[in-house]
Amino acid sequence: xxxxxxxxxxxxxxxxxxxxxxRLDALGETVAAGDYLxxxxxxxxxRLDPEDAQETLKLLDEMxxxxxxx
Length: 70
Known about the structure:
single chain; alpha+beta; SH3 type barrels; 1 helix; 5 strands; elongated
């Protein structure tokens, strides 16, 4: 998910038009708006390289499109 804003140890995120928040406590590194995070159960668990994140989002979109075609 893409980080929209950070307020202390909570990030506001967006992916596919869906907004969410995630705790940053477990990540152990600085996060800023524009970063991409892997999130599980409301916790950021990894910061992603922007190119890898974009490729992953593209693949997810393709999978959803293929499912819609069935």
